[in-house]
Amino acid sequence: MNLSSLSASSASSHPLAPYGWDEGWEAEFAPYAEQGLLPGRVVRVDRGQCDVVTADGTVRADTEFVVPRDPMKVVCTGDWVAVDPGGDPRYVRLYLPRRTAFVRSTSSKRSDGQVLAANVDHAVLVVSLAVELDLGRVERFLALAWESGAQPVVVLGKADLVPDPVTLAHLVHDVGTSAPGVPVLGVSALHGDGLDALVALVGSGTSVLLGQSGAGKSTLANALVGEDVMDVRAARDVDGKGRHTTTTRNLLVLPSGGVLIDTPGLRGVGLFDAASGVGQVFSEIEELAERCRFPDCAHEAEPDCAVRSAVDSGELSPRRLESYRKLTRENQWIVAKTDARVRAERGRHWRRKEAEGKAAREVKRARYR
Fold it and tell me: What does each C-alpha distance from 234 to 131, 147, 224, 231, 298 come to in angstroms?
């Protein structure tokens, strides 16, 4: 047996294997193992502390030593971390480089990103059929999902509210046209319809459930886990929304294999530097744009615009083009705002350095007067 086979065998038999531990993570962690640190995966974060599952069980750890000013670098659910082997309290010393990260812009007016889940293989967008489909919102979620590096999956939840299979098939098709390259499933967590197909998709790797409050994420999580691990409350009939029954991001092991992260309902989903994600969601528009006369065509009044021609011929829907324009403008705005903030911070940094240097020179001159 060669060295790589031994490593794979060691990783597969590791107590953390059900949580996604593999030979890649084992190799990444090797330098920290030599320092006596313990590997673990963050299953929950709450106010500067987190629950970390380790080979010795789940421990409560403080993130005091990983508190950067950049919100993109704070510890989050799904991270693989190095924790102290003992002590009270224990501390997270660092987290391993993330393979993927689902990021949205914060709800504040600052141009910051917020990592909702790390090291995710499948981003499962749960859309409730209790309310009218909002294809624009689906496209927005998908742009972030593609940008994260994960494979998006769309679940049309509460499918039992659409008893006619033909109508359900039409809804699946409508969403599919807005989600090229993405599996779209009609699922009833209440009756189990479509659940087997979802289990097959998320049966390996790590999956994160995303969607608005009241979409049925917690009910779906309970169905996938096979027991009531998440609190569930009824959504309002008038708009399908509900209270946040899930208030933290929780990582759960699935009995059929794989790991699931349930998240609180998302009211706002702002893009954060998601140009490639937007391009993948609207891949047919990007392909059409390559045939436009001008490389910087805005697809509005320019001559020989292949995109506008596709709209005029009925090949491309006007709604789809307008959604593309909206998300592209928003992404360009957040990127420009982020760049401006970075430039401003860099300027403040160098001005501070210059002031410190000037003060040091003044002190030095004073000594020799």
Answer: 14, 32, 19, 10, 45
